[in-house]
Amino acid sequence: MTERIMTWNGISSDNFNVFFLADAITFSKPERDLTQIEIPGRDGYVTIDNKRLKPVSQNFDLVFLRKMSDTKSITDCIIAITNWLFSTNSWSQLELDLFPDYFFRAMI
Fold first, then answer.
1. In 9-78, where do the E strands start and end?
2. Three-state DSSP class for residue 42
3. How far apart are the first and last CA of the chain?
């Protein structure tokens, strides 16, 4: 199990002792956004390329490692983690230390 750090909306998961499992990541390939139109009297479809890619859903397995010296309750830790992950409802920057030269636009 390889634990890696992610930065969501400018805040590192390390601040919450939360890590993603790099071994479990398999990335999905985006698909082209195509519109198919059926025309009566014609076989098949007319395909229009919308010149973009469809959004991709990506799941990450996260682990929370509580330090024995941590005086906060598990409930308080979980509330802080939840507030961090759901701090925005718009597209934000997601960085994974596994890919230091890249960032992702993501929504949680």
1. 11-12, 18-21, 32-38, 45-53, 62-64
2. coil
3. 24
Whole-number average pLDDT of the chain: 90
What pTM did the predictor assign? 0.74
- Contact partners, residue 48, CB within 8 Å, separation at least 6: 34, 35, 36, 37
Structure tokens of 68?
């024995």
pLDDT band at residue 22 using 50, 70 and 90 as cut-offs: confident
Q: Could you tell me the two tokens for 42?
A: 């014609």
CA atoms 103, 22, 31, 7: torsion sign: negative
Residue 70: HSE in the Cβ half-sphere, 13 Å Cα cutoff: 14
Dihedral of CA atoms 7, 21, 82, 29 in degrees, nearest 10, equals 70
